């Protein structure tokens, strides 16, 4: 696993699970790695920041194909979705501190892979499940857009 992928996994998971561990502070260099990945996936999918603006207020992800493919891109780049569009959240067990493992296990057990018609929809439906399981995830999903 390359360093950028590990850094992004750690950043993402630390933000995802902030609700459980309130004292986490994310270093700037880790936020920078997440921002780079966000920029790559936004460019690849033609997603724009406008897609994300209303998300925190509504508590829901917009039903937009660019957003769906953005989520797939991120999951793909960090190795959490395979070529058969199965999400492997359990891959995070290798890189996360032990205090995060129960939360990852809960998301993994509760959501598994929410299959859609393609990889983009699968990433979207699964992310929606994560948000329903732990609403704090919604606030943390697009953190790299705000800095």
Automatic annotation (TrEMBL):
<feature type="signal peptide">
    <location>
        <begin position="1"/>
        <end position="23"/>
    </location>
</feature>
<dbReference type="Pfam" id="PF01395">
    <property type="entry name" value="PBP_GOBP"/>
</dbReference>
<dbReference type="GO" id="GO:0007608">
    <property type="term" value="P:sensory perception of smell"/>
</dbReference>
<protein>
    <submittedName>
        <fullName>General odorant-binding protein 69a</fullName>
    </submittedName>
</protein>
<dbReference type="InterPro" id="IPR036728">
    <property type="entry name" value="PBP_GOBP_sf"/>
</dbReference>
<keyword id="KW-0964">Secreted</keyword>
<keyword id="KW-0732">Signal</keyword>
<comment type="similarity">
    <text>Belongs to the PBP/GOBP family.</text>
</comment>
<dbReference type="GO" id="GO:0005615">
    <property type="term" value="C:extracellular space"/>
</dbReference>
<dbReference type="GO" id="GO:0005549">
    <property type="term" value="F:odorant binding"/>
</dbReference>
<dbReference type="InterPro" id="IPR006170">
    <property type="entry name" value="PBP/GOBP"/>
</dbReference>
């Amino acid at each position: 696993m390359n360093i950028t992928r590990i850094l992004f996994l750690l950043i993402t998971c630390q933000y995802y699970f902030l609700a459980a561990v309130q004292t986490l502070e994310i270093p700037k260099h880790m936020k920078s790695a997440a921002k780079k990945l966000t920029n790559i996936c936004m460019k690849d999918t033609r997603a724009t920041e406008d897609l994300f603006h209303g998300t925190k207020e509504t508590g829901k992800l917009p039903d937009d194909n660019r957003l769906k493919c953005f989520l797939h891109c991120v999951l793909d780049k960090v190795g959490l979705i395979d070529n058969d569009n199965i999400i492997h959240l359990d891959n995070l067990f290798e890189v996360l501190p032990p205090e995060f493992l129960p939360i990852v296990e809960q998301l993994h057990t509760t959501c598994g892979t929410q299959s859609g018609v393609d990889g983009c929809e699968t990433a979207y439906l699964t992310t929606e499940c994560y948000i329903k399981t732990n609403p704090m995830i919604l606030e943390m999903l697009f953190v790299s857009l705000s800095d």
